[in-house]
Amino acid sequence: MGATRETGSDAPGEARFLARLALLAVLGSLLVLVLALGEGGLMVLGAGLLGVVLCAAGVWWFVAHRGLLRVIGALLVFLAPAGVVVLFAYQGLWLTALILVLCWGVALTCARAALRRSRPERPQVATAAARPARPVLIMNPKSGGGKVGRFGLVERAEELGARVILLDPGAPADVAELARRAVADGADLLGVAGGDGTQALVAAVAADHDLPFLVISAGTRNHLAMDLGLDRDDPSRCLDALTDGEELRIDLGDVSGRAFVNTVSFGVYADVVQRPEYRDDKAGTALSLMPDLLVGEGVRRLDSLVDGAPLADQQALLVSNNPYFSPDEISGTGRRPRLDDGELGVLGIRVEDAAQAADLAVRGSQSTGLTVLSAHRVEVTVSGPAEADGSPEAAEDAGTDGPPEVAENAGADGSAEEPGTSGAVEIPVAVDGEALRMPIPVVCTLRPGALRVLVPRDRPGVVAPPPAIDWRRILDLAFGRTVRTAPR
């Protein structure tokens, strides 16, 4: 979000020029292939594609199986790309491959630049903000490996006139209740230095009382801070908003009565983060559980209604507060270009064998294994063996073995019951990375413009994310045809 609108009369001409360069680069790559037909041009394409397919199959076998298949998968992940490189070098095809890669790199770079100039992002509207008189900031000293102490956030905040509530790591606190008490005592701004899960709990209180909310990037990944353009390397800069700030109106997600600022995950990831050992050994825990979650007997499948339309038998489902700019970026590095469009992003994944994994690797968002949607309401249930989650055994496991933050967060805003108390069928849910269990159906909605966020005027993280490639629009731009786009 916060992209800068292109100005000046040369923008359309620049877009046309860049679109033509992109097409020339594509034609150049085709010409290289034609000229190299007799010298292994097709082998370059075939070997490269085979390398991608084998590597994707290797990843699948490594993640979804144990024993010999896992070993074979690991070998394929390393040997497939190495084999392609050796083949190119042995056959003298490395120059052809290098030229093709360069041509495609130029084509994609020019295409994205053309699209950005022809349709610049609508900037987030910021309004002037008065300096808060009684700001209250809740800080978690353990968050982000101790960023609160390392960057002197308590001292800096108090110098700026804020009251700081410092959480005790040894005594779990109800942060939502702390925020409500601060409001009752006259706070005119609430803020959090902590992870996104804690941010969401306090943000809900701020939204309920129509108070400004301050995000301090003291968490581990700071997804919300990233999409607001805040400095994630120096969280003390976020405090500049207290003296020189402006206000943004953004949407706030709701999952069965609990607020979320980034994402709600169902399925494989949500299952993994429930395990108590995940905190100390994320990779090992995931590798240990994945085979049973992906291909084992009684695996969970998710059914959902996305604005009333069915989306069935998914292994994983991610619902985000506004869509990510690229459906291919579902990792922690993905960004949302806006937080005020009033829509949920929906990503569904279903990959059941090596062939489907290869299809996903080759075709990306066009693969049948990846569903990309936007919606205003998502209702999630489960089918088949997942009904066992409502059994007393599953509820007992959830109540005794889950990580400490499950019980803490469930009670923090009163939105989630303790597992096993109502007899309802519950499923694991990861809300902004926090492990919870919620009774089905789990309903995700959005509160458009519900949250007033106070941000510094100087935000170094504000960037214009690259648009998804649309070659039809590139052709229209290159040849001067009318470009029809959906309103933003």
Written description of the protein model:
α1 crosses α15 (471-478) and α2 (41-64) packs antiparallel against α3. The chain contains 15 helices and 17 strands. With 488 residues, the chain is of the alpha+beta class. The strands form two sheets. Strands 1, 2, 3, 4, 5, 6, 7, 9, 10, 14 and 17 form an eleven-stranded mixed sheet that branches. It has a six-stranded antiparallel sheet with strand order 13-12-11-8-15-16.
Short description:
The protein is built from 15 helices and 17 strands. It has 488 residues and is α+β, with helices and mostly antiparallel strands.
Topology:
Blueprint: H1 11-35, H2 41-64, H3 68-91, H4 94-118, E1 126-128, E2 135-139, H5 147-150, H6 153-159, E3 163-166, H7 175-184, E4 189-193, H8 196-208, E5 212-216, H9 223-227, E6 245-255, E7 258-260, E8 263-267, H10 268-273, H11 282-294, E9 301-306, E10 309-314, E11 316-321, E12 344-349, H12 354-363, E13 370-375, E14 378-383, H13 392-401, H14 404-412, E15 426-431, E16 434-439, E17 442-456, H15 471-478
Parallel strand pairs: 2-3, 2-4, 4-5, 5-17
Antiparallel strand pairs: 1-6, 6-7, 6-17, 8-11, 8-15, 9-10, 9-14, 11-12, 12-13, 14-17, 15-16
* Number of distinct helices: 15
* Beta-strand content bin: 15-25%
Separation, N- and C-terminal Cα atoms: 13 Å
Radius of gyration: 25 Å
The tally of strands reads 17
Give the overall silhouette: globular
Largest sheet: 11 strands, mixed
The portion of residues assigned to helices is 25-40%
- What's the average pLDDT? 81
Structural class, judged by helices and strands?
Answer: alpha+beta
* Unreliable residue stretches: 1-10, 328-332, 386-422
